[in-house]
Write a structure and sequence with these properties.
By secondary structure, this protein is mainly α. It has helices at residues 26-56, 64-100, 115-120, 128-143.
Amino acid sequence: MATARKKKKVLPEDYRPSDDEPFMNEQQRAYFRRKLLNWRDEILRSTKETLQHLQDDSEQYADIADRATSETDRSLELRARDRQRKLIAKIDDALERIEGGTYGYCEETGEPISLKRLDARPIATLSVEAQERHERRERVYRDV
């Protein structure tokens, strides 16, 4: 008895999501999955290079100014890596949303997030309008 296997389609390298096709169809999900995985790999590669650099640059400087510069550079690198660690968590969340079928939809309104916004910021969870409302509320609370 022959079993039907679901054949995985290969996404063309030059594929770009279009408003002319159904929102979050299989190709669009594959496109954003690939984009997110590539971004994640790039961050991890960069993190490994930074860690290697920080380990290699552990020399002690006799000059206090050189030591201060080295410590400042190290602190900036560690803060950048912490931001990237948080970004990886957001990328992982976006990948889970792709698998769960909620990727590309605004968490606040349930409406589709524009493809242009997702292409520019693939971890977006809010539509532009919802993001603007969110930022206005933050400003109001900050100013109070």
